[in-house]
Amino acid sequence: MTCPLCTSAAPLIATAVSGGPADASIDICAACADPATPADHFRPIASTMWSEDPALQVFAARTLKRLDTDWARDLLDQLYLDEETQEWADNVAEQTDHKDSNGVPLANGDTVVLIKDLNVKGAGFTAKRGTAVHRISLVQDNAAHIEGRVEGQRIVILTEFVKKRA
């Protein structure tokens, strides 16, 4: 089977699509399910976003919105969803226990700013205060941890040291 988002022949995993019918899920590759996957991985979405499966349409719309690149914004402008499916796509009320230093809920794909210098163990550098970390991933089994890229390295960051950027 091929992934309906990126058309790769990778093994597929069932992924829930929140905010709609309780049993809504799609089968996609692990790379498409990971919010930290680089935007260029999703280039084939231009042809697959027109699926007749509403759950796939919703996931594609949310993915394009999260990517925040010129080509993704162009595709999002072209994507037409019926009113009910658009409502579902906009309903991203993911409940999360991950909160920044001010208690603001964090979600996959958010941008955060470091509020203090952090010595990155094993990488040999210090992540400076004020550094923006784009497209974070939540560590599912630990609400105090998020993952993100700083200076090209994927690191785990404690949520107490970040502030969500509006």
UniProtKB/TrEMBL annotation:
Residue ranges annotated for the Protein YjdM C-terminal domain, each copy included: 98-164
InterPro entries, sorted: YjdM_C
Superkingdom assignment: Bacteria
Family matches, as Pfam families: YjdM
Name used for this protein in its record: PhnA protein
Organism in which the protein naturally occurs: Sulfitobacter donghicola DSW-25 = KCTC 12864 = JCM 14565
